[in-house]
Please model this.
Amino acid sequence: MSLNGFVDLRSDTVTTPTPEMRRAMAEAEVGDDVYGEDPTVNKLQELAAEITGKEAALYVPSGTMGNQVALRTLTHHGDNVIVEEGAHILQYELNAGPALSGVQFRALPGRGGVLNLDEVRAIATARTGWTSPAGEVALPGRINLVAMENTHNRASGAIYPLEDMRAMAAFAREIEAGVYLDGARIFNASVATGVPVKDYASLADIMSFCFSKGLAAPVGSCLVGSTDLIAQARVWRKRYGGGMRQAGVIAAACIVSLTQMVDRLADDHANARRLAQGLAELEPKGVDLDTVQTNIINFEAARVGKDARALMGALRDEGVLTSTTRPGAIRMLTHKDVEDADVDRALAAYKKALT
Model:
C-alpha cells in the first residue's frame, strides 16, 4: 500500500526507502565527497563500475543532472545529437541540452522507442556538410552523438533490443560519433531479458542509471564510463551545482538498491502485466499488451472514447493515483510499494470509474 491510503501508480519515483535503506543511511560513514573523501560514496561508485563493467562511476543527485552532465562531457557547443523523438532527454528536461551544452537535437520517430538505423544513416549522410564555391560550409555538420534510452519511458517502458543497440553503436563508431545510453531503468531491461547490464553498458561511452525509480532509493543516479570521461564528468557535475559534501548519507541507500533491490524488479513486471491484462479485459482497445514489457502501462483512454483527465479524477476519487505523458493517455507504473492487493484495488477502481 502506498502512502496516505492511495495506490500510487503515478511513477516508480514515489517509492519509499526500505527499512534496510534507512538503517544504512543512519549508520553511513561519511566524508567530504567534493574532496573525494566520502567512503560510502566511493564504495557506491566502485560497486556501480564493477556491476556495469566500466572503469569508473560518478554519483549525481538526479537522472536529469546525469543526462545533462553526460551530454556536456560528450559534446561541444554546436554539435548534433540524434535522439528518438520521445526521449526523456528531449521531452522532460526543459530544453536543458541546448541551454547548457549548446547542442542541436535531431529527433527521429522510433518504434517502441527504438531508432531506425536506416533513418539515422540517412540523416548522418545528409548532414555531413558540403562546401560552396565561396568556401562556406552550408550544412550544420556531422552527427556527433547518438543517444538511446533503455527502457524507454514514453514508450511504455519498452526494452531497446540488444542487437539493435549493437548495430546503432557500431554505426556511430563508423561515423566517429559518440554513444550515450540513458539507462535510467536499465536494470528493468536486464531483469526482463536476462541480458547483463554490462552488455548494455559496453555499447556506450557513458551510461547513466537511476537509483530513485524501481531500485527504490530516495535520491540519486550514476554515470559510468572510462576513467578519463568520468573525470571530465566530475568537473561538469561541480559546475552544474552537483558537488555534494557528506553524500554518503544518501549513497548508503543506493548501495542497498544495488545489492538487494535488483532481482525484485521482476515482481513489478509481473504486477504490471496482471494490471494491464485486467485493464484489457475491461477495455480491450485501451491497452496494447505487447507494449507492456516491464513496469509501465500506457492506457489509451481516447482510443476507447474516454476523457483521460476525467477518468484520472474518477480513479483518484477511488484512491488510485495515475499520471499522463500525452493527451488521451493514462500512465500507470508498478513498483515495490504496489502489491498484489493494490493491483486488485486499482482494477476495481477502474471498473467503478467506468460507470
Notes: The longest strand covers residues 143-149.
